[in-house]
Amino acid sequence: MNSDKSNIVIDTGTLISASFRIESIPSKAYFKALREFNVCISEETLTELKTVMQREKFNKYLSLENRISFIELYQEQSTLYEVKESVFDCRDPNDNKFLELALTVQAEIIISSDEDLFILNPYRNIAILKPAEFLNLYIDS
Prior knowledge:
Elements: E1 7-10, H1 12-20, H2 25-36, E2 38-41, H3 43-53, H4 64-77, E3 79-80, H5 96-105, E4 109-111, H6 115-118, E5 127-129, H7 131-137
Parallel strand pairs: 1-2, 1-4, 2-3, 4-5
Helix pairs in contact: 1-2, 2-7, 3-4
């Protein structure tokens, strides 16, 4: 972990959107997070990304080869953490993994396109921001 950078967590939906269109708001938020934060992942969040990105329905947006390359680069550019705490606060139980990771790493922000996460903002002093809100808050930083 780079100690001069704050920790950040990015949810799967945001990452999928970022991978499909390089000029999209989610993509710009993703690259800004990589430049200015320590992007944190867990085995659980990475497994979900790998599973979802391999769905055939995404072939029309990006080839499987390119989606796998995106995952590999994301994994290389992120820091893997072992989650230490279980939570059950999200109305979608599948999203608790992002809250757990954020708590474990004491993240400053979760970037999310998911309303189930967004309605918890702030979550135990962790900002949950949509990609556009993240970009607006951290403009020129």
